[in-house]
Structure formats: C-alpha cells, structure tokens
Amino acid sequence: MTERQYCEHQATHEQLVVKAKEVTPAIGYINIMCQILKLLGDPTRMKIIYSLLNGEMCVLHIVEAVEVNQSAVSQQLRLLKDNKLVKSRREGKNILYSIADEHIIDIINLAKAHAYCELEK
Fold first, then answer.
1. Helix (H) / strand (E) containing 108
2. Which helix (H) or strand (E) holds 82?
3. Rounded distance between C-alpha atoms, residue 119 and residue 60, angstroms
4. CA dihedral 33, 35, 39, 40 (to 10 degrees)
5. pLDDT band at 9; cut points 50, 70, 90
6. Are 57 and 97 in contact (CB under 8 A)?
7. What DSSP element (H or E) covers 49?
C-alpha cells in the first residue's frame, strides 16, 4: 500500500490541503514574493537596504556604509530600484536613495529576528 492510499491522519490532512490551497496566493504573487526574497538574498544588497533603514542616502555615503566600490553599489541599487525595493529622488546634483515602503523594513526586521533566534540556539 502506498502513502497516497493510506494515512492514519487522512481526514485531518485533507482539510489542511484544502486550507493550504485557499490561502496560497496566485502564482503571479508567488513569483513576485520569490523575486523579492531572491533580491534580498545577496549580502551586498542586504547591506545596502540595511544602510537605508535610518533614512535616505546618496551613493557616495552608501558606498562608505557598505564598504563596496561605487560601481558595484550602483549596479545593486539599479536592481533594487527596478524591483521597487528602493526609490530615488534628485536633490540638486545628488540622487538620494531610500527604502520604497514599510513592508521592506518589516521583511528586514523579521529576517534579522529570525537570524538572531537561530544564532542563539
């Protein structure tokens, strides 16, 4: 007999399958969520996001904060901006970057809390 044919928790698991299908977002949203997490999965991009948590900064200061060359920071900022994780505005000759919205801050804070929790185990 295969696992598919018999499970001692069959009724409970079938109800869970129905609930899982109900709460799982459509594939378009899943793809966007995966893209966001993939973008945040790069250490340089994470450091850039982290450096912007306290407010907007120009590229020069982001470079100093993350200790990566300007070309690499500019390339990563472009990816983050194209995917709406950061936004920019011009002020005179400078372009200032900031976190796009509070959701990104929430994601970063949750990831940090989970990382600290894992390290304390």
1. helix 102-120
2. helix 70-82
3. 33
4. 20
5. confident
6. yes
7. helix 43-51
